[in-house]
Amino acid sequence: MEYSIGEFSRLTSVGIHTLRYYEQENLILPNLSPMGNGVIPKMTLPGYNL
Known about the structure:
The chain has helices spanning 5-12, 16-24, and strands spanning 2-4, 31-32, 38-41. By secondary structure, the protein is of the alpha+beta class. It has one domain (2-41). A three-stranded antiparallel beta sheet has the order 1-3-2. A hairpin with a 5-residue loop joins β2 and β3 (38-41). The longest helix has 9 residues, at 16-24. The chain starts with a strand and ends in a 9-residue tail after the last strand.
């Protein structure tokens, strides 16, 4: 399962700006959906059991 950045933010209580920063620093590597949107794979952040 994959989550949009908004869904992931809501599930983890990590802000979207923080997630974008993590993306810039290559701490998370979102995949591209068929529509070209970034999606975050399940279990991306350590400590979150999604």
